[in-house]
Design brief:
The structure holds three protein chains of three kinds. Chain A is an all-alpha fold. Chain A has 13 helices and no strands. In chain B, helix 3 packs across helix 4 and helix 8 packs across helix 11. Chain C has one domain. Chain C is about 70% helix and about 0% strand. Chain C has a two-stranded antiparallel ribbon with strand order 1-2. In chain C, strand 1 and strand 2 form a beta hairpin. Classes of the chains: A mainly alpha, B alpha/beta, C mainly alpha. The interface between B and C is large, with 51 and 44 residues.
């Protein structure tokens, strides 16, 4: 405790704090980043287990589904899309696992921020705005995905699953993050609209994320499903991301306009999602 | 032993007997060898600051926490050996409400009664009576998440009465409630006491202990510091009145020496000085006569807060 | 004699059953698990039914995607006894075993942990004349009931898809319950050691590889023999093999052996959980 009058004077008004207008101006510009800093600080506590997970998951999936399941496929049809099953499935698994991770990062933590732990209301009492809080959390999670995608890519290289070359295949990292952003922004926006305890997340998990993992061209080309199911792929960020990823890892052949559609679709989802999320945060926390 | 004030207790029997009760968590002796006995029909308090070991003691009475040492008999049984049977005698109101949030108010009462093996025929009428007792008639079909803090507390108490227990354990019953809700609750508890239910209350509120308890033990660091009725404790450990004076943070310490002879006893706290005396007004006049005019002054009756301060050198709520 | 019923005491005296003295398990068992089950059904009745039903879809989605989509790439594989069977028929029994495992583990770990730490449902139960064993038995029964519904649903899907080719397949439903009770009993004991949600993730670290490697989607012969032995020590592999044998009616001594594995696991799990009950609930 500072008890003397002098200490108290220094505590209450040292003269080293800029005027309120200056602080407000800084927050107007950088508030979102301040929340990213906060997010990274809290993430540090889990960093160890997250890293183990980010290394363990690609190893497990590539061994089990690439190598193990691959043995069955290779002795069945031989090659898929002109390459071995491991090479075919690896980029898709990268996209899928990164996108699926949004299901953990941008659902319950959002509910915790608004309702359970009310974490958002601390920064809300500062010049940082609700929209900046939402954006900060989104950017923080995307930073995590950069690391996650990079680790997955490195393991793919180690498995020899990138015939197009190490350098070009590194593009799966931005593609993975873009795919996660496309789905994650929409998910975060949706999560921020929920007032109830969030059994809806179980629905999202079972009826959106899981089908996307299973039916959006991850384990088999979309074309091997009946035509009336192809729409599941068309509306899935996972499929668009996977198609791009396959081009850069093994040179899957696709028409240029389709490639443009993939990029546009993912960008558009991100843009719409972020705008919706920012507006929803602002409305919910009262400007 | 101090005089027993409850009429029912005069003819009562020992319903809880604890000897050398101990609970150790690693290095921390949460309850450190306490001995007490509760007579049926009386209203017994455990008073102490947060972390003193009150809730731990309560949970050992019900056998929902295993003790580390000592003996305990509740209605003649050992809760550690015969937990379910012991708890059939008890009504428990925990510190934190643990109502079933997935059920309605009425279903909370019925389902809870089923845990005692009570038949539906009994519970149907009992639930209605308890809802009335808890003044929740128009909320009977609501989920518990829709209740206010005071309502939840009343429902928790009503729920604890479903098995018509001989012994009601109340852990911090009014913590976190607004003054009005507290008084409503105290009124409910008074009525129960009047019809002979034994109450065991933990609290860190002096006024609550004074209102509700015939007899209490003061606990600090897991040990009993004193035992008696609120009145006898105040008589033994404090004076009739207290004069609180403030001279400002810088001056309090400086004037203490000049106050020594106006009081039976002095306590110097960071922000004020407590002057223990039988006549507060006279002491204040004397202080003013010496030219030591305080910034603020207040004369009040002594309370259990003063007893605790005397016993431990600390204030109860900090 | 409490206040609210004072004036009506005569018409409704409480009837708390008498306890026989000195019976075994008196400290942890109040012989009233039924009331815990009743509470569970009351909650299910009020619950969002769609959530309950949606649990059934997960294995079905896997079956459709992997069976039909991937099956087109794989073709036929060799089933129990070496006969050639379609890929869908190969994975369906494995998915039922996995789903039984997942449901049981979810109910005995996450669900128990949540009710213990956050909803405080068990706190309320244990301040009555219930003991921890009543709570454990009640919760395991409810988990099995859900498991039973899902297993029946999945069997119906298999029937419709023409994947049931042997009368032995009817035993797949009780076997799903056997697998579930094995995992649930061990899972509950494990939960007694857990302190935070982060530690819960350890459970996923065990479950995911078990699903990916236990001959669920492809035979384990693709791996070196050392790894095969390791997989064969894990419970899910036995569950998958057991289901597969029953599905095609290839029943032998090995089938019984796999079943005995789960009987042993259940006995161990129940003993383990009973020992840990105080640590789980009375802390």
């Amino acid at each position: 405790m500072t008890d003397t009058a002098h200490d108290l004077q220094r505590l209450a008004a040292s003269g080293r704090v800029p005027p309120p207008e200056v602080m407000a101006a800084r927050a107007r510009r950088w508030g979102w980043w301040y929340y990213v800093e906060y997010w990274l600080r809290t993430a540090k506590a889990w960093a160890q287990s997250i890293v183990i997970y980010m290394i363990g998951e690609p190893l497990l999936y590539l061994i089990a589904l690439g190598v193990g399941l691959g043995t069955l496929v290779d002795s069945g049809v031989g090659t898929v899309d002109g390459v071995s099953y491991l090479v075919f499935v690896a980029p898709a698994l990268l996209i899928s696992t990164v996108v699926m991770s949004t299901g953990g990062e941008l659902t319950y933590p959002v509910m915790a921020g608004f309702k359970w732990d009310r974490l958002y209301y601390g920064p809300h009492a500062t010049p940082v705005t609700p929209a900046q809080i939402g954006t900060g959390q989104f950017v923080g999670v995307m930073l995590r995905f950069v690391v996650q995608a990079a680790i997955f890519w490195a393991i793919m290289v180690a498995f020899g699953a990138v015939p197009r070359g190490v350098l070009v295949s590194a593009l799966v990292i931005p593609i993975g993050v873009l795919s996660a952003a496309a789905f994650g922004a929409l998910l975060q926006a949706y999560a921020s609209t929920l007032r109830d305890e969030g059994y809806q997340f179980a629905f999202v998990q079972r009826f959106v994320i899981m089908p996307m993992f299973l039916f959006a061209g991850t384990f088999f080309p979309l074309s091997s499903m009946p035509i009336y199911l192809h729409w599941i792929g068309w509306i899935s960020p996972v499929w668009h991301g996977t198609q791009l990823a396959r081009q850069v890892t093994y040179g899957a052949v696709e028409t240029v306009w389709l490639t443009i559609v993939h990029v546009l679709f993912l960008s558009l989802c991100t843009l719409v999602g972020v705008r919706w999320m920012r507006r929803s945060y602002t409305q919910r926390m009262g400007a | 032993m101090p005089p027993v004030t409850s009429p029912a207790a005069a003819t009562g029997y020992p319903i809880v007997v604890a000897e050398d009760l101990t609970k150790v968590y690693g290095q921390n002796r949460a309850v450190d060898g306490i001995t007490f006995s509760i007579t049926s029909g009386e209203s017994f308090g455990l008073l102490g600051p947060n972390g003193a070991g009150k809730s731990t003691t309560m949970r050992m009475i019900g056998g929902t926490l295993t003790r580390s040492g000592g003996t305990m008999r509740v209605a003649g049984l050992d809760p550690a050996e015969r937990g379910p049977e012991v708890r059939a005698h008890l009504g428990v109101v925990p510190q934190q409400d643990n109502l079933d949030e997935e059920l309605t108010v009425r279903d909370n009462l019925i389902v809870y009664g089923r845990y005692f093996g009570l038949p539906h025929s009994y519970l149907r009428t009992k639930a209605d009576e308890l809802i009335e007792f808890a003044q929740l008639t128009d909320k009977a079909k609501s989920k518990t998440t829709a209740l206010s803090g005071g309502m939840k507390r009343r429902l928790t108490i009503a729920r604890a009465l479903v098995n018509e227990p001989k012994l009601l354990l109340l852990d911090e019953p009014t913590t976190g409630l607004d003054p009005q809700a507290r008084h409503v609750l105290w009124d409910r508890l008074f009525r129960l006491k009047e019809v002979g239910v034994t109450l065991v209350v933990t609290t860190h509120f002096m006024d609550e202990a004074e209102q509700l308890c015939d007899r209490l033990i003061v606990i600090d660091h897991g040990r009993i510091m004193a035992e008696g009725s609120p009145r006898s404790l105040i008589r033994d450990y404090a004076t009739r009145e207290v004069l609180e004076v403030r001279f400002g943070a810088q001056r309090n310490a400086a004037v203490v020496d000049q106050l020594a002879d106006v009081a039976t006893r002095l306590e110097v706290l960071p922000d004020r000085i407590l002057v223990y005396t039988d006549d507060g007004e006279a002491a204040l006049e004397e202080i003013s006569a010496r030219g030591l005019t305080p910034i603020t002054s207040l004369v009040r009756r002594s309370s259990l807060e003063d007893v605790f301060l005397r016993l431990t050198g600390r204030t109860l709520v900090d | 004699m409490s206040a609210p019923s004072q004036d009506r005491a005569t018409e409704s005296a409480p009837v708390i059953p008498e306890f026989p003295t000195d019976r075994p398990l008196a400290a942890i068992y109040g012989r009233n698990a039924r009331s815990v089950i009743e509470r569970g059904f009351k909650v299910i009745a009020r619950q969002n039914w769609a959530v309950l039903v949606s649990g059934f879809f997960e294995p079905v989605l896997y079956l459709l995607a992997m069976g039909l989509g991937l099956g087109a790439l794989v073709g036929e594989v060799s089933g129990p006894g070496g006969s050639s069977i379609p890929y869908t028929a190969y994975i369906a029994p494995a998915l039922l075993a996995t789903s039984a495992m997942n449901g049981a583990i979810y109910d005995s770990t996450w669900n128990v942990f949540f009710k213990l730490r956050f909803a405080r449902v068990y706190h309320a139960m244990l301040q009555t004349s219930l003991g921890p064993m009543d709570v454990a038995l009640g919760e395991i029964f409810l988990a099995l009931f859900r498991g039973f519904l899902y297993a029946c649903g999945f069997m119906a899907v298999m029937l419709v898809m023409g994947l049931v080719t042997s009368p032995w397949a009817i035993l797949m439903v009780p076997v799903a319950l056997l697998i579930a009770v094995g995992f649930a009993s061990v899972g509950m004991a494990v939960t007694s050691y857990l302190k935070s949600f982060q530690q819960m993730d350890v459970i996923n670290f065990v479950m995911l590889p078990m699903f990916l490697f236990s001959a669920t989607l492809y035979p384990i012969e693709v791996f070196p023999e050392v790894i095969q032995w390791f997989i064969k020590a894990m419970p899910l592999w036995h569950g998958v093999e057991l289901m597969r044998h029953l599905a095609v009616g290839f029943v032998s001594g090995a089938t019984l052996g796999h079943a005995l594995y789960f009987v042993a696991m259940t006995v161990f799990g129940v003993w383990f959980t009973t020992v840990r009950l105080r640590a789980l609930f009375l802390r």
